[in-house]
Fold each of these.
Amino acid sequence: MSSITKKERDFHHLSKPWNVVFNLIAGIFAFLCVFPFLFVVIISFTDEGVLARDGYKLIPEKWSLGAYRYVFESGDMLLRSYGVTIFVTVIGTIVSLLFIAFYAYAISRKSFRYRNFFAFFAFFTMLFNGGLVPTYIIVTQFLGLKDSIWALILPLAVNAFYIMILRTFYSTSVPDAIIESGKIDGAGEFRIFLTLVLPLSLPGLATIALFSTLGYWNDWFNALLYIDNPNLVPLQSMLMRIETSMQFILQNSQNSSLSLEALRSMPQDTSRMAMVVLATGPIIFAYPFFQRYFIQGLTVGAVKE
Amino acid sequence: MKKTSGFIKNIINNKVMLLMVLPGALWFLFFSYLPMMGAVIAFKEYRFSRDGFWASIIDSKWVGMDNFKFLFTTNDAYIITRNTLLYNGAFIVLGLILSVLMAIVLSEIVNKKLAKVYQTGMFLPYFLSWVVVGYFAFSFLSSERGMLNQVMEFMGMESVQWYSEKKYWPFILIFVYLWKAVGYNSVVYLAAIMGIDKSLYEAAMIDGASKFQQIRNITLPLLNPIITIMTLLAIGKIFYADFGLFYQVPRNSGTLYSVTNVIDTYVYQGLKTTGEIGMSTAAGLYQSVVGFVLVMTSNYIVRKYNKDSALF
């Protein structure tokens, strides 16, 4: 990072032509990464009729806000899904942070007699798992979470990898002396954790919280497995469902006259793209500000105890 | 007698810490260890029982290795194993080359602010779900409206029914994977490059080494340990495919299965579509066991190479 301040280090600089080439390589790749999103935004602002005739165009003949108007007017589905996603993301992040922060702290403490056992108990799950089918059966038949909002929260709540990252973080950034001093002052373990350890480990917790938030916001897999109730469908999963319900109606539209009406009321191409934009918008706007925490998490993860 | 009271004393002495691990430990029990035990249904003919979960497992008839035999006598086992290994192999090799290349390119760009902007752009796909990426791919590949067919028609070529032509999909899937992963993976290598002692470059400069000689003789050799470790860890996971990529991007198109079906999608279909519970549990267990052996082996090699970087 200090390299930014040392402007005089010219020996380290590329020659001008090569600098241009390197800028082009990175610039083009970066553009490629952003372009599909811009394209979908353009499609969502295209007039439906023009789109049906010309296909997806970079510069459509006619722009329109129709898709967004449609989405907001018939926006029941979107609003409900937004609600589900926000609820799941907020509660999920809190639950997951609590579980992970306590677990990681306990196994980071040398005075905890069973730390090795519980460290292994968590760690082993990174090496071996029972597979999708037994997990599905346990969640639906044993825990009874089918069509429950907790089926969207609990399966993602704990992750051994985050525990390992956070344990490393505690043991490198919270000196034993601080904990000892707390003990001498007569504070109990919980107080030590809350008043001494927590403030010191905020950057680590923030990283885990952001990973967790992103995980919940983008999750569709658990909804695909466990949710049939249309009132509990999160955003990402709703995006999948409007797709399949469209296909279903299209496939069956020759057979029945009823479905034609249903077809007309379904969101069309532009509205679907508008929903994609609305579902990703918050992340696109937020991530540049949080990027460095993700980078920190990635690089901390590479260093272990 | 003395031993048990010692044990109880230990529990009491550690009660706060035990309370702290309790929620997480219960989670691991329910979401990891019970499913591991539940994997016995790979050796059973699973029948759902009204008396609940335990009854279902216990009452189901033992069939020994029949599920595995059935799985491996079909062509499916071969296809899904081949696809999983080949795709992941391509992801590892091409992903490594591109990520290291991008990291070096970003680290050498003179204007650091611009480099930061590029990096932010490249990082974007990491934050998107596979559902959204599936829509992105559709906006290019849709046969009537997609941009790719429009461009091809414009250039006088015939348009392609992308979602039913098998031969293009290995390239499409590899492209989409790289698009999503390279920006993210290059972060790790970029951090490693930033950590290289600058005086090494200074010395090389005094000796008259060109920028490219510096990259070849300083940057790459010093990246070597982290490259080796990242690659070995990826090899440890080579039996696990990214479900989202293979499920969302080809839009579950049946005609493409022979080139898009991987172990994870196969297990999912067995569970949710075809209802072959026993066989798909068997496929999942096959994945877990081989995956376990691979992780242990690759970790063993990492340990030999650099003890600090091993997973355990």
Amino acid sequence: MSAINKLERHQARTAYLFIAPTMLLFIIFMVIPVVMALYLSFTNYDVLSRMDWVGWDNYRRLLDDSLLWLTFRNVLLYAVIFVPLNIMVSFGLGLLVNHAWRGVKLFRTLYYLPTLTSAVAAATVWLWLLHPEFGLVNGLLSYIGVTGPAWVAQTETAMMAIVLVTLWQSVGSNMIIYLAGLQGVPGHLYESARLDGANRWDMIRYITWPQLRPTTFLVSTMAIIGALQLFDQAFVLTQGGPANMTKTPVYLIYQQGFNQLQMGYASAQAFVLAMAILIFSLINMRITKAEESVI
Amino acid sequence: MKKRWMTLTATVLTAAMIAGCSGNNGGGTSEGGTSPGTEGGSGDKPVELTFWGDWGGEGQVQFETMVNAFNESQDKIRVKYVLQQDMITKFLTSATSGGTPDILFWDRWRTSLYAPKNVLHPIDELMARDGVERDNYFEESLKELTYDDKLYGLPLTVDARALFYNKTMLEEAGLEPPTTWEELATAAKALTKWNGDKLEVAGFSMSDPGLFNMYLQQAGGQMITEDGKTSFNNEQGMEVLSFWDRLMNQDKVYKIGFEQGLGEGTDAFVTGKLAMHFTGPWMLSTYKKYGSELDFGIVPPPAGPSGDQASVMGGFGLVIPEGSKHKDEAWEFITWWLANKDNAMLWAQTSLNLPGYKPALEDPFFADDPLWQPFLETLEFAKIRPQHPGYSVMEVDGLIPNLELFIQNKQSAEDTLAKSQTQGDKLLKDNEVVE
């Protein structure tokens, strides 16, 4: 008995030692800064000259900050469109390239390629493609007699343009995650389903999709976090315009902290954003885990 | 045995990571920090100064030309240019943790935000000691470097927008370069070419609603009042909007998004898809590259309905951070560059910027050049942006979004001005200086 305990203790110690480097980095670069930011959000810290405790002042100011809430509305709208589309498209692509057929590796590479480009560079190229008069997108539309909009400049389409570009850039890596998940679905499940007379769609609906629930959870959580932290593509494509329609909380936090030197207030804004991310991740967790697993 | 190996490996890994981590930190500070000239402060060794800027590429070469010329001119001070991509953020951290540079390349409008924090060194005493004349600089550019009656730096460049026009296109249409809003609107309409619902040539660029400030002054108005409130929800503001409405929605001289995403080689003005637009001297070298393919002229911005002329002056300066240990030497470098005609000219000809030092602007290089001359004229009446620390936020987050809705015909002129006022006043108040 005691020998087993001893062994366990030893194993535990080794395990702690193994996770020590990661934990150390996590504490230095995540935990400490987060705690500091929480503290700063109760001060009037301006980086340069002062850091006095101001109590709840920053949070009170938040309530009245209509621009901040507008940016939250913007990213929520973005998330509502972006996250489901992201899951559907990357799941679909994953299914498509899951089977071994001639040239599949080429397609896997092609779908993954956009992920490797820098967000800013890709957005710059897209800006070109979306140009109202000389862009490829509107050029193609004009062949079918449609006058395309000024995608990134018009209030109606600016957010759609950002969804399009970010989707293009992010489905590749999610496709890989789904692909890994798909390869792990045991073949005997399909076999027995076939014996029971299930068709292709049934198998996707009742086997593949439930089996991939952990994968979907991962993909959707990352997508939600990414959506709420939207910044670079939106900044390059629209600079937050037109009419503040695509301004995002991260943009505002950066501006408030680094351009206006109100780091205390910016920290408070950042905390609200962090809370929002936490809440939506929890909701997501409930939704994704709602159904009982098949096995 | 196996276990022991694992333990050992883990320990080594941990140690390596900690070492790597702290090693990086060390590298970080020594690379950016530059504790200036601690070793060269006394004796015969020259004093070493660090000069930070965020101009890379050609700009870096231009700065280094000046730095090298200064280093060769004497042997007491050695200046080194350090490119800081994210200069302002870097300065923020260095100002508190030490390791500030001795000279900082400075976007002048930031002065009203940074000077109250006591991180910049006032130069009034140095000016008086060395007899540097204020008259040699545009009063507006000095004003932008001033906070609370203290001067914090000298202007390196001055700029202001003027009207660039495509000569060939105006000649073909039998038009003279516009000098008033009325002439501008007429010319813009005549130069615009539509093909069905495709805009082929825009007569005049309406891409930047941020130019409202300039138009408002041309209409005889001011952006904000003395006590820090917006002052465009009035007759003058209305005048600007009805002028824009005429250009955008009645005469349709432009289409939104027309220039978005067009880089240097595909610039609408270069490719003949845009006949006229407001821009600054920073575009001259780009446009000159196209030589005979692009025949263009420049005139000062057309005057408003009551004959008011206006443009917004901007530009850069050089400042001395309060943390510098060699302020006198830094000042010597700054005056060598910015208060000496020969050196100011060397800078101007190297970088093709209008120098902040006025005597250099009298040089035939500028005064006799038909492309520079309109800017000199414009600078005589150009005014800086209001010095409220919340001004740019008010403009970017409060005013421009509403103007965009107006330009896209989604909000009436009255609503636009009223909403810009409420939102703008709030942003100004939230971002004013708190002592």
